[in-house]
Amino acid sequence: MYDFAIIGGGIVGLSTGMSISQRYPDARILVLEKESRWAFHQTGNNSGVIHSGIYYKPGSFKAKFCRDGCRSMVEFCQEHGIDYEVCGKVIVATTEQELPRLENLFKRGLENGIEVKRISPEEVKEIEPHVRCVGGIQVFSTGIADYKQVCLKYAQLIEQQGGELRLNTKVEKIIKDGNHQVLETNNGTFATRFVINCAGLYSDRMAKLGKVDPQAKIVPFRGEYYELTPEKRYLVKGLIYPVPNPEFPFLGVHFTRMIDGSVHAGPNAVLSLKREGYKKTDFDLRDFAEVMTYPGFWKLAAKHADEGIQEIIRSFSKAAFTRSLQQLIPEVQAEDLVPTHAGVRAQALMGDGKLVDDFLIIHGDNSVHVCNAPSPAATSSIEIGKSIVAQIPHQQHLSPTTIP
Predict the structure, then answer these.
(1) Among 303, 310, 311, which Cα is nearest to 247's?
(2) Are 304 and 202 in a shared domain?
(3) Tens digits of per-residue pLDDT, 80-116?
(4) To the nearest 10°, the Cα dihedral for 46, 289, 318, 87?
(5) In this structure, how many other beta carbons lie within 10 angstroms of the beta carbon of residue 386?
(6) CATH label of the domain that carries residue 277
(7) Range of 332's domain?
């Protein structure tokens, strides 16, 4: 009998396991992951950015967890020798029409307690010499990290505390049996007193297996990236972002210098026809049918039709993708870009067409379900893990300690 079973071996599941092992050192902890390695999906394909929290609504979980997580992630990387860099970033307006939105973003940063600074086009060029803009914001706390290394360290710390980690183990059924639950998998059956669902792209389906209403449906959006050729990496010193449209849930194509020195450009955001569909040709009938028959998707599509069409064009036209990047750095040419990995974002969508804008954590019978944890979940993972553990009802048979 396990005390806690965590479904999902991405960064949120592993961070939660680490936090439980710190809070309840004597607990029997089990982490189940259906893939052959940790951080296989969202975590392993993200941009590697340590976000500051400037974008998120003041008072939201995202704003608080991201701001605090930015600090705790840097401290964790320092403590465990994980590659990271606090390089800062610039957010730039490329037209006069964007300046009011840039100013609103600056004020939001101040409201969220983030160190930000208005900078002129000339000051932007001192930081990023090849950017063309009419104004900018410098965000000092933004950084980059190797989140795969972070996940491996989380897993190592769980094991050191006595936790059990199982890869290649897919949960197929959740059965309530008295005061505990039974997880039936392709690799054995496991009984546990408490279930924590961190299944990412399948978190809504996993909640339903546990007889819990996820309150939203996961709709997968694929983000496609290009990479600057090595001889053109000099065009980007750090992180360069456009002013996002506050009505659209994505940040727009941007430049990110990765921890290995490569520079990624993107992503766009297009509907994926499969929950784990990293290629344009990937298709799953069940996943596709679920989205197409979901009223919330069509309401969202109608609201953002123009933006959605532009994202699709960028997906199929390298020239259109290049033009978007040239708004930030005019020198970038199509021949400077080569395709690289794509990621799929698990975005929770309500039936009325509204995107779940914050982290969504739902409580069930002896269970907690993380049903929306897109970006900045990697940045916030330590804080999300602590918060989940704080929400778990006190386990009478376990002796808690204080989480540092």
Answers:
(1) 303
(2) no
(3) 999 999 999 999 999 999 999 999 999 999 999 999 9
(4) -20
(5) 23
(6) 3.30.9
(7) 218-349
